[in-house]
């Protein structure tokens, strides 16, 4: 089930693949993942907690009118990643997805090292790196291309295991 939820979150992030992503430092990515973990609770992401940490909701306008978007998209000043909240589907919990650009392809190793220093490593599978932030599961994935490297972080509250 977790794999299916993260796969869905990944597809949500793919919608921004063609947008110009900000280049993000490892420290900014770690901080943003922490913000997502703080805001995630069982089944939903608390937008108020994100706003209290400086995230601002984006709006899309067409012909002078606000357009409803399937994703909630947030930004933060500076070189922070783009934050998206994936809507609940099929009873799956909401998740927080971060995406940002890397200056160089090799920067992903620095990003992974920063996550490893800050959070509990929980394994690797294929291109995914798994981490725990309390009861949250985090998946760090290298995305983009050789010429335009980027990354995606999915954060999902798993709840307390009994």
TrEMBL record:
Keywords: Signal. Residues 1-19 form the signal peptide. PROSITE patterns: PROKAR_LIPOPROTEIN. This is DUF4893 domain-containing protein. It comes from Qipengyuania spongiae.
